[in-house]
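queue> pop job 88
queue> type: inverse folding (structure -> sequence)
queue> payload:
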């Protein structure tokens, strides 16, 4: 399962996407992010990109899921030390 995400930096400071962390579960069990650069899923870990104020950055992330229908939840933390994650998907696929 893949998502295209957009970081829209409306702050006055540079944002580094490498600060992002994702939390994903499939049927309540944690699943890993898929890194497959040939498919365009490079993730954000280790990226050297910076999002300048008033700029945007698009990227794709993917997660491993079952072939049969399953409950999926994906959330993101803007900074890995953030106390809570922001849900970006919660549904059945």
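queue> result:
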């Amino acid at each position: 399962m893949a998502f295209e995400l957009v970081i829209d930096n409306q702050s006055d400071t540079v944002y580094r996407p490498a600060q992002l962390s994702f939390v994903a579960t499939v049927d309540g069990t944690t699943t890993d992010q898929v890194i497959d650069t040939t498919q365009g899923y490079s993730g954000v870990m280790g990226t050297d990109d910076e999002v300048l104020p008033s700029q945007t950055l698009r990227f794709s992330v993917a997660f491993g899921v079952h072939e049969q229908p399953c409950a999926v939840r994906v959330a993101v933390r803007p900074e890995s030390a953030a106390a809570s994650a922001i849900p970006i998907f919660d549904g059945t696929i």
